[in-house]
Amino acid sequence: MTLASPLATRVLSGDRRALARAISAVEDRLPGAAELMATVYRRAGRAHLTGITGPPGVGKSTLVHALISGHRGRGMTVGALCIDPSSTISQGALLGDRVRMGGFHEDEGVYIRSMATRGTLGGLARAAGAAVILMDAADLDEVLVETVGVGQSELNIRNAVDLVVLVLMPGSGDSVQLLKAGVMEIPDIIVVNKRDRAGAAELAADLRRTPPSGAGGAAPRPRIILTDALSGDGVAELGDAISEVRGHRTEQGGVGAQRADTAAAVLELALEQVREQLAGIVEDGQAAALLDAVSARRTDPGSAAHALLEQCFGPDGARMATAS
Amino acid sequence: MTLASPLATRVLSGDRRALARAISAVEDRLPGAAELMATVYRRAGRAHLTGITGPPGVGKSTLVHALISGHRGRGMTVGALCIDPSSTISQGALLGDRVRMGGFHEDEGVYIRSMATRGTLGGLARAAGAAVILMDAADLDEVLVETVGVGQSELNIRNAVDLVVLVLMPGSGDSVQLLKAGVMEIPDIIVVNKRDRAGAAELAADLRRTPPSGAGGAAPRPRIILTDALSGDGVAELGDAISEVRGHRTEQGGVGAQRADTAAAVLELALEQVREQLAGIVEDGQAAALLDAVSARRTDPGSAAHALLEQCFGPDGARMATAS
């Protein structure tokens, strides 16, 4: 009953300043943040959550901008979370107090938030997942999450969203190779942006030939959409494709699939908590003697890892954690 | 004193079959594997450890092949570990008993091992790190580790090697963008392979203009080497560059830098142990009721993560882990 209860009520009523304060509370791990999340989560689950991912420079921010405009045109309220350190949205947020994104800062129906990586990626997935839940609970209809990512990325927010749109452009050969090799998880939709550039049609054709199974087994073949986010060409078609995939997903969504997603999300969240705690021990210098012993080869990394877990969880906890 | 002691002695004497058995013991978490690692680690630390990373299709396997030939030509013994699921080396290993890699299977001075990802990435970093230590302890002069990776990858073995070579080719636009955006860690050396293809010189020039600081702060500007791994062009120059970087690293290598590397390695290893344990609990269905409660929004993911940590570490351990 610290800050959680009244703040939760204000978030749930759609108060944008309360939403901003709640996200900051989670980012900064303020007392009461966990209680706040427990309270709002029961009321979340109504928003459409879409991840927009891809390498830097392909035009993700412009596409997010165009999607926001489209949603607003249909009278939907929109939240956008940007956790891509290379994004123009993030850079805008870092440069000034107000996110100046095509005038949306004067639109009460749009809430834009960017999340700085603070040089390290620790805790980012946790904070981003919580921010998505808060936006959802704050009565926003559509939530877009922009992340940078190619292959397995620590900025992966797949578990926090309903579906993932991968944005590529002519020249995205590495991403195509990762998809073909089955190293990269198959997204629900692949956008070939900058469709007027040389090679766009070839890229789309190449992607259509790519086998539909990604890392971790069979996946449905992704929809391929060509866009020019700057002029808006193809963005309406993308919006329709997102709606169709979501509709199909809702029809098909058995309990099993949902539980797998939930399991992955909870597992990552638990690991993130452990990571923050272990990193704290290391950064505080509490493990210095241990690390020196590894460097001097008096102990091996595996034994040192066990000792570090003992420092964090106590002897019983570490024994439970490492017993096979 | 299970299998560890006699097997360790045989590994340290350079017995290749013992080395293979030891790596399998670690991969399969056999009893005694931790003791084995503790024993051999004291005797490791003599080998040169080089990571070869990059997206699929750029020619990493061919380059590893060429580097092995070069090392053999100078009378060095060589170990190669391939943990790239898209690699032709891995595929060879999966298709048959014998790794057929240009005739090296008849050369006693070469030990090649590939590590399957088994559909999931859990435990791979741990097993790969241990395999590198075992090869080092087994009296191999040079150890090459081939991994797929773009940006932050779970296949990252940076902490297990002395230096990292990133291999790109014309068309690797996504990787260049990740480097420029500071999202990707800066490697020590960047190889532009397939140097005869259109765009190779432009790619090298573009990389030379890329700012030298990567994610996590300033890094020295990487050396750029153009190669054609298939014909061998530029491979000798790459070998020289690797030696120079390693020599420079050894001169500069203060205790501080070494401790940071060790800390990262131990931290990742500890997290890997926790990940395996938590994943086991989830896969065994022990957390099913908890996950159903999240799906039904009776509890939130953060509370569920805490409950999962309690299941793993006991109430005291979980409290220690999540106290701020």
Mind explaining what this structure looks like?
Two copies of one chain form a homodimer. In chain A, strand 5, helix 7 and strand 6 form a beta-alpha-beta unit. Chain A has a seven-stranded parallel beta sheet, with helices on both faces. Chain A is globular. Chain A is built from twelve helices and seven strands. About 2% of the residues of chain A have low confidence. The two termini of chain A are 40 Å apart. Chain A is 50% helix and 12% strand. Chain A is α/β, with parallel strands linked by helices and 324 residues long. At the A-B interface, helix 3, helix 6, helix 7, helix 10 and helix 11 of A face helix 3, helix 6, helix 7, helix 10 and helix 11 of B.
Report the structural category of chain A. alpha/beta
Proportion of strand residues of chain A? 5-15%
H/E topology pattern of chain A: HHHEHEHEHEEHEHEHHHH
Largest interface: A-B, 93 and 92 residues
Q: Report mean pLDDT of chain A, rounded to a whole number.
A: 85
Number of strand elements of chain A: 7
N-C termini distance of chain A:
40 Å
The Cα radius of gyration of chain A reads: 21 Å
Query: What global shape of chain A is seen?
Result: globular
Quickly count the helices of chain A.
Answer: 12
